[in-house]
Amino acid sequence: MGSPTTGVDPDDAADDGGILTVPNLITVLRLACLPVFVWLVFGAREQTPAAILLAVLGATDWVDGFVARRFHQVSTVGKVLDPTADRLLVGAAVIVIIIHRAVPVWFGVVTLSREVLVGAMVLVLAALGSARIDVLWVGKAGTFGLMFAYPAFLLGHGPASWQAGVRDFAWVVGGAGLTLAWIAAAAYVKPARAALRAGRRGRRDQMTTEVPA
Question: Residue 18 burial (CB < 10 Å; 0-12/13-18/19+)?
Fold first, then answer.
């Protein structure tokens, strides 16, 4: 994803503002898999297929963005939908896996707290008329790590000897992902201030141009 700037994004030149694009369809399809994941865990009680599905959803996180840039289908809707989908996928996975008791509650709470904080910041900035903030690569890396850690926690939940190694992997990847996610949350503060100033300048300029001579 882009850098935390509020100036002209190179992708903006290809921004058609469209909704019915292939990247957006991919994002929606990923979101549509969430109910399937929940059913596999609590309905079918198929822990392994659920973990595999969640891992696939995490692994395909980059696909929609790549398709958007490669085929010049970057859109304003997509730039909002993609990180929103990431947040929903992480949030749902965390809640489900906490309830399933495959991850410690404190780890899940720290993960969810970061998602709530960033989500609230986005809403507040939007309400204040802020310019758009591009997603930071460190935040995407953190999300990517967490989207592999939680399937591993789920897959490693059990008494089998091989599951101990899976749990160890989950802790390594999860610890790194959670650390990067919180670093990204702190790193958003500076670009958020700049975006807010840019948004206010844009509104003032618009009001000035609308005043009749």
Answer: middle
